[in-house]
Write a structure and sequence with these properties.
This protein has helices at 2-6, 20-50, 74-85, 103-114, 131-143, 156-165, 187-207, 243-262, 284-294, 316-329, 359-370, 395-401, 409-423; strands at 94-98, 118-123, 147-150, 170-173, 213-219, 266-271, 274-275, 297-302, 310-311, 314-315, 346-351, 357-358, 375-380. It is α/β, with parallel strands linked by helices. The structure holds the ligand O=C(O)[C@H]1O[C@H](OP(=O)(O)OP(=O)(O)OC[C@H]2O[C@@H](n3ccc(=O)[nH]c3=O)[C@H](O)[C@@H]2O)[C@H](O)[C@@H](O)[C@H]1O. Ligand UGB binds next to strand 8.
Length: 432
């Protein structure tokens, strides 16, 4: 390094001297300079190629979120992937869970692991909301033996590599750009994750041998401006009210295509406003809790003419049961080598609670649980993609999956608040 420090900083500072001795010295200096420059460049090259991309915070630009698959590999990586994906129970399944550091992904991964299934997580740890919460979920899963590979669903070569190492029987696809209102701020992130990401995952699944069965997260938002309640899977879903909803609806159509052409077994689950411990800080119940504790006012939306805005809030444990039942009842894909060999299963289910609750009642329950009066700021429902109400008809899921939600909002929020206060230290530390 000393030689580099001593080297002239600009070529103009070189003085060409005429004597053979000086020429020799010059040649020798040039050789040394070239040698140490190469060593230096080599070190820079090694540093950039070997250092894990995770050491730097992920950029928020979704097109730059994908991590290079060249940074994955080696015997240690493969060993971890294999161990995590290994089935440890009779009749168990091996599941690739995308979005495993997310809210639903963490709970589903833990539940699968608990019953002896093989589980490998995949997550890009993006900064849509506080990544430290995702890291805490990751630590939780690691303790149960679930390894989360840090990578993006758009990284086809990484996905292929994972399928080469562990021939998954199932994929639980939960990685997505969530949030209804954020779609107006960052539309391209929805296209990147919910459309392009889904397609790259399905491309890899269709070529895998054997093809896995896929269960994935659609959304109640596909019902959009529907006014007929409760929402049934047979209802039309051609009036999405947000880009988020439109990308989830597009996902359902893309699923149809891959089922039709390649024989992939696909099950879409329309989740209805899922809440609970380890939840998402961008959701109303979560940031209402934070802001009530801080004494900040909370905006409560109401529809025209003081119309009630309501949601069919669904507790996470009920959703997990629905996800596991969907995996357990999924039939095998029928294709192989990218070719369809026969008709394959294609399903869509509502996973809701079937009892919509007005947002103002949600706030009242939180006030009681937190023992703090909320500063309510009632305002007109902004035109930002929100719909006035959601209400699931779950008879199909009941019949086919044995799905039966058991936790009402009162009980579910009690569990959430208990977790919130323990995680954020009785409100002293608070969610971002
Ligand atoms: O079922 C889904 O598929 C979606 O569920 C969730 O969306 P939503 O049902 O809109 O939940 P969430 O934002 O918690 O707002 C809850 C209520 O509070 C109202 N709300 C919201 C914000 C606010 O400031 N004030 C307010 O009254 C608001 O009008 C609404 O009535 C997921 O975020 C989404 O990713 C997707 O999975």
């Amino acid at each position: 390094m000393k030689h580099i420090d001593n080297a002239p900083s600009t070529p103009g500072k070189f003085k060409i001297e005429k004597s053979p001795y000086n020429r020799l010295r010059l040649h020798s200096s040039l050789a040394k300079l070239t040698f140490w420059s190469l060593v230096f460049l080599g070190l820079i090259f090694v540093f950039f190629y070997r250092s894990p991309s995770s050491s730097s915070p992920l950029p928020s630009d979704p097109s730059r979120r994908s991590l290079s698959s060249s940074s994955y590999g080696g015997p240690n990586f493969e060993k971890r992937v294999r161990a995590s994906a290994k089935i440890r129970s009779r009749n168990g399944i091996s599941v690739l869970v995308t979005g495993a550091a997310g809210f639903v992904g963490t709970h589903v991964s833990a539940a699968l692991k608990r019953r002896g299934d093989g589980v490998l997580g995949l997550d890009n740890f993006n900064d849509y909301y506080d990544p430290s919460l995702k890291r805490a979920r990751q630590a939780l899963l690691e303790r149960t033996g679930v390894y989360i590979v840090e990578g993006d669903i758009n990284d086809v070569s990484l996905l292929k590599k994972l399928f080469d190492i562990a021939p998954f029987t199932h994929v639980m696809h939960l990685a997505a750009q969530a949030g209804v209102r954020y779609a107006m701020e960052n539309p391209s992130s929805y296209v990147h994750s919910n459309i392009a990401g889904l397609v790259s995952l399905l491309e890899v699944c269709k070529n895998a041998n054997p093809q896995p069965a896929i269960v994935w997260a659609s959304s109640s938002s596909v019902y959009g401006l529907n006014t007929k309640v409760p929402f049934s899977e047979r209802d039309k879903t051609d009036q999405p009210a947000s880009l988020y909803a439109a990308t989830k609806k597009a996902g359902e159509e893309i699923a149809h295509t891959y089922n039709h052409i390649y024989g992939l077994s696909l099950t879409g689950l329309r989740f209805f406003t899922v809440y609970g411990p380890w939840g998402r800080p961008d959701m109303a119940y979560f940031f209402f809790t934070r802001d009530i504790l801080k004494g900040k006012s909370i905006p409560i939306f109401e529809a025209a003419n003081h119309g009630t805005v309501a949601r069919d809030f669904t507790y996470i444990d009920d959703i997990v049961k629905g996800c596991l039942a969907a995996l357990d009842t999924a039939e095998k894909s029928t294709g192989s080598g990218g070719k369809k060999k026969g008709p394959a299963q294609l399903r869509v289910f509502n996973l809701g609670n079937t009892s919509p609750v007005p947002v103002s009642d949600l706030v009242s329950i939180l006030e009681r649980l937190l023992k703090v009066k909320a500063k309510r700021l009632v305002m007109k429902l902004p035109r930002n993609g929100d719909v006035q109400f959601t209400h699931a008809n779950i008879s199909l899921a009941q019949r086919e999956l044995g799905y039966k939600p058991t936790t009402d909002l009162q009980m579910g929020l009690k569990k959430f608040v208990r977790w919130y206060l323990s995680y954020y230290g009785n409100g002293k530390k608070s969610a971002q």
